[in-house]
Amino acid sequence: MTSDSPQHLSVLLVEDNPADAQLVRDLLEAIEETTFTVTTVHRLAEAQQKADEAAFDVVLLDMGLPDSEGLVTVQAFRGGPGSHLPLVVMTGREEAHLGREALRFGSQDFLRKQDLAPPMLERILLYAVERHRTQRRLELLATAFDSGQAVLIADDQPQILEVNRAFTDITGYPAEESIGHNPRFLSSGLHDEAFYQALWERLKEEGHWEGEVWNRRRNGEVYPQWESITSVADATGNWTHYVAVFHDISEQKRLEAELERLASHDRLTNAYNRHRLYEYMNEAAAARDRYETPFSILMFDLDLFKAVNDQWGHPVGDAVLRELVRRSQENLREADILGRWGGEEFLVIANHATGEEAMALAERLRQAVADEPFPTAGRITVSIGTAEAHAGESLESLEERADRALYAAKRAGRNRTRLDVPE
Fold first, then answer.
1. Beta strands 150-155 and 109-112, pairing class
2. Of 88, 139, 223, 263, which residue is 20 to 30 A from 252 by alpha carbon distance?
3. Residue 106 and residue 96: Cα distance in Å, rounded?
4. What is the DSSP string of 39-100?
5. Residue 207 phi/psi, 5° resolution?
6. Is 396 helix (H, G, I), strand (E, B) or coil?
């Protein structure tokens, strides 16, 4: 991060509405775990200039500005000096769909202004910075791999004629244990005969092959490598040698997996995040429209969770959220998908479930939470609102109905489940 302290973020706030800008600053100031330095500008042109002049950890961008509107704002910012910065966009109540579209244009996340709250704002900004840092590490790692290539030279048998030091460093095999052997002694057994046949056919036809190969080191460890093989011909055009150049991509694979996890999971609870939930809901909606496959959603949050944080502190509150996710996952069906919607609010996509079936699931979740006290915090309850998706219904409408049912459960006394039935 820009500051020497890991608990500090420098934020470029791009917001033309003075009241909204002040609200964001006030919310950031109210956060205790992380401190924020906020630089506020009112136009896209000013934001691009600031991004070029100063260092920021993250950008919070309103999509409606005097000199730019909608997705064009995101595209323009991503195409300018701020292209390297983590980006979170803000939308109004009627523009939530634009926030989701912005994810496709390089935004790390989005939030609606009416949903702004210190914990959510803090988590979204920290997540954006963390994901950006991981991506940069991945890029640097790729550069490092390029400078440490292993080389193997074989004849047309093929038998290995020569290997370099990087080959030994990666595989563990010294030159004296490699030269004279068929390169297949490195095989992990994960590729079938058809894989190698296709590889050699490509070499014979085009003189070159490139791809991912899983091999086995001298110590028995199976690992991935990126390999490029080139055929070498003599003056008559006959292939006489093959040169293989490769590098170990184990760390790259690990980082890619971690980056994928960060892109799809909530950092605190390891449940799916809002972005990934939207993707799954779109898939469920497509199946509903094409195959008439039912699905429902359950929206729930912890009752009086603020009191838990006030009495026991945020570490206990975080532990409660993690335990809530654990209990929920234990009681879900295999087809169900759980994610963190924001703050203490969670959402379950109940695939292949009608409203009545979703209500049965909701009641099971409610009991799993209420029946056993939580460590330190004691008895915790949840209120759950459910809604079945109907043909032609937008996701926004479905979310609103589940949210309406949730608050009906709250009004009924909490620790309740309610099903919304469209009028």
1. unpaired
2. 88
3. 16
4. EEESSHHHHHHHHHHS--SEEEEESEETTEETHHHHHHHHTSGGGGS-EEEEE-GGGHHHHH
5. 80, 5
6. helix
- The pLDDT assigned to 137 comes to 52
- In angstroms, rounded to a whole number, what is the distance separating the alpha carbons of residues 202 and 367? 60
The answer to whether the CB of 381 falls within 8 A of the CB of 369 is yes
Tokens in use for 408? 């009906």
Question: E strands along 66-221, which residues?
Answer: 68-69, 87-91, 109-112, 150-155, 160-163, 208-216
State the amino acid at position 366 in one-letter form. R
pLDDT confidence of residue 3? 45
What is the CATH superfamily name and number for domain 265-420? Reverse transcriptase/Diguanylate cyclase domain (3.30.70.270)
**CB neighbours (10 Å) of residue 159?**
12
Dist CA 315 CA 331 (whole Å): 25
Give the tokens for residue 362.
Answer: 């909701």
256 flagged as catalytic: no
Ramachandran angles phi, psi of 57, nearest 5°: -85, -30
Tell me the mean pLDDT per 10 residues along the chain, length 423.
63 92 91 90 92 89 89 87 87 74 82 85 86 62 55 89 90 95 94 93 90 96 94 75 90 87 89 94 94 96 94 94 96 96 95 96 97 94 96 92 96 96 72
Per annotation, catalytic residue among 15, 227, 344, 345: 344
| Cβ–Cβ < 8 Å for 47, 12 | yes
Supply the pLDDT for residue 170.
94
Kind and range of the H or E run holding 306:
helix 305-312
| Amino acid in the structure at residue 103 | L
Q: Could you tell me which residues are beta bridge partners of residue 346?
A: 300, 340
Which tokens in the block code for residue 339?
Answer: 């994610």
Q: Which residue has the tokens 């079945």?
A: 388
- Cα(292)–Cα(157) distance, rounded to whole angstroms? 58
Second-level CATH architecture of 148-253: 2-Layer Sandwich (3.30)
Q: Which element (helix H / strand E) includes 277? A: helix 274-291
Using CA atoms, how far residue 185 sits from 158, 246, 329, in Å, is: 12, 16, 44
CB 248 within 8 Å of CB 269: no
Instruction: Quote the Cα angle for 331-283-78, to 5°.
Output: 115
CATH architecture assigned to 8-145: 3-Layer(aba) Sandwich (3.40)
Q: Where are the domains of the chain?
A: 8-145, 148-253, 265-420
Tell me, what's the pLDDT at 4? 43
Q: How far apart are the first and last CA of the chain?
A: 50
